[in-house]
Amino acid sequence: MYITFKELRDIKHNLPTGSVKRIAKELQIEEQTVRNYFGAEKYAEGKITGNHVQPGPDGGIVYIEDDTILNLARKIIKESAGADAPIES
Predict the structure, then answer these.
(1) Mean pLDDT along residues 9-14
(2) Whether pTM exceeds 0.85
(3) Based on the structure, what is the number of domains in the chain?
């Protein structure tokens, strides 16, 4: 999957407080791995993450081989937005 670095960072910045810890716990990975993922770092826990950055607009293009963290982050943002939505009667 391809995403701009800006989009990746925007997702991270829209996560509610405690989300990095929640993602790490649910996926049974280190919190630093989650942080590195959103920073498009190549290494986490001493292994290559599968993220590759190419120069381009909006901070470049990031190729993500495994979008599990990204999908969980989007789910958390969606849940969070639903919690803030007005209750309809």
Answers:
(1) 92
(2) no
(3) 1
